[in-house]
Design goal:
By secondary structure, the protein is α/β, with parallel strands linked by helices. 48% of the residues lie in helices and 11% in strands. It folds into two domains: 42-283 and 353-436, TIM Barrel (Alpha-Beta Barrel), CATH 3.20.20.140; 284-351, no CATH class. It is built from 16 helices and eleven strands.
Length: 437
């Protein structure tokens, strides 16, 4: 049974909106609307395609069975009714050298093994690794939470394409060919900053990697590579693709979001775009104003707490273990400071919120259709918006979708149906390619 009604939501039941109408059905008050959303949320499989992890949180002493400061862990998933967490094997872009590839590969293996530890040793009674859509439904029906694996940045495969098959065997079910910075496989969206490119899209090795990913059932993720790399990947792929955590560029003009041309190509390809609840990718103007004004408050608050804040650009330059530690501490500090900041800025600089996030879902649905849109957070990697700032608040997304008139069938597609359909199609193509040799 999902336990997702937070105290905040429970309090909101007291608010009454007479005459509210959804799909022609009159709802007498807020309590009835929440009850409708609660029923839908409990019935559908909720799936978030992007949650970063730190292996330090997958040990005997410290792990996801505890309500850590992380945005995602098992208690928060239970509280918010989040059924499926795609745990991310992320590797920051480094030098394109044998030594760089070696370090990157070891980082990836550490994260694969951390996820295996959680699902096999630390909490096998609570969460299980899924490799197929059938696994997801079976595990969910058994009353357990579901872990799935995505690889953010294929940099760790180096120049050895056989590692793609190895990653698939370890449970990887999607992978991006680049992250922030050009890889040996593909250019990154970050090339837009200075218009300097390494591969003019995909490298020759990257083109071969697309084939291997198709062959071994790994969905191609378009969320971080450059537009040219994405166009080439779609053209080459024999199976549908995904964008695991991207917004609509028409609503928020940042290079991490997808423009209408890419959206249309994904629609024609049969793929899916997982809208991301990342403040600066949802509403740039609100995010920048809020960040600017809250930064000063946070410095004041952090100073009292003995924590030194660092500019995001500088944080991204840190070694991964230090960067992860910084974000973990920052998340905990923000949670503690949130009531204070909200009170100070509620009128001057309102936060990017769930309504702003669902605006992206609305736009994507209208642009490419309900069958090609999904949901992601980028939790523990910088993601989150007001009212969906960790997994415990997942219900609020469903509530906002119900407010806007989405039906149970449509909400089921958005939360998991579309993504699992693409996974099925990718795995079907993989079986056919493997038979051909």
């Amino acid at each position: 049974m999902k336990q997702f009604l937070s105290a905040l939501v429970a309090a909101s039941i007291l608010l009454t909106f007479s005459g509210f109408t959804i799909n022609g059905q009159k709802l007498d008050d807020e309590a009835e609307l929440i009850a409708k959303a609660k029923k839908i949320h409990a019935a559908v499989i909720t799936l978030d395609t992007h949650n970063d992890i730190n292996p330090a949180n997958f040990t005997e002493a410290v792990n996801y069975t505890q309500n850590l400061a992380t945005q995602v862990n098992l208690p928060k998933m239970k509280q918010g009714g989040l059924d499926v967490s795609w745990m991310i094997v992320y590797t920051g872009q480094g030098e394109l050298t044998e030594e760089g590839y070696k370090k990157a590969y070891q980082n990836a293996i550490d994260k694969f093994e951390a996820i295996e530890r959680l699902t096999k040793k630390l909490a096998p009674d609570q969460i299980e690794l899924a490799l197929t859509s059938k696994d997801v439904r079976r595990i969910n029906k058994a009353g357990k939470m579901v872990a799935m694996i995505g690889v953010e940045n294929a940099y760790p495969i180096g120049t050895d394409l056989s590692r793609i098959k190895d990653f698939a065997a370890r449970g990887a079910r999607y992978m991006s060919l680049a992250h922030n910075g050009h890889s040996q496989l593909a250019d990154s969206n970050t090339g837009e900053r200075d218009n300097v490119w390494l591969n003019n899209g995909l490298s020759e090795l990257g083109k071969k990697a697309v084939y291997e990913m198709n062959k071994w059932g790994i969905m191609i993720d378009l969320s971080h590579p450059s537009k040219q790399a994405n166009i080439q990947a779609i053209e080459l792929s024999k199976a549908p693709v995904i964008a695991s955590h991207s917004g609509a560029r028409a609503l928020c003009d940042v290079s991490r979001n997808l423009d209408d041309e890419q959206l249309e190509l994904i629609r024609k390809n049969g793929g899916v775009v997982q809208a991301v609840a990342f403040r600066s990718y949802v509403n740039k103007e609100k995010s920048e104003l809020r960040s600017k004004m809250s930064a000063e408050i946070m410095k004041e608050f952090a100073s009292k707490e003995g924590f030194k804040t660092i500019e995001r650009a500088e944080v991204l330059k840190l070694p991964e273990n230090e960067r992860t530690e910084y974000f973990t501490k920052l998340t905990a500090l923000r949670t503690k400071a949130r009531p204070f900041i909200n009170e100070r800025l509620k009128d001057q600089a309102p936060d990017v919120n769930v309504k702003d996030f669902v605006n992206h879902i609305d736009y994507l649905v209208k642009k490419i259709g309900i069958d090609h849109v999904g949901i992601s957070s980028d939790f523990d990697g910088g993601g989150g918006v007001e009212d969906w700032d960790d997994a415990s608040e997942t219900f609020n997304v469903t509530l906002e979708l119900v407010r806007r008139g989405y039906t149970k069938k449509q909400i089921e597609k958005l939360w998991s149906g579309n993504l699992l359909r693409v996974l099925d199609e990718v795995q079907k193509v993989a079986k056919q390619m493997q038979k051909q040799g």
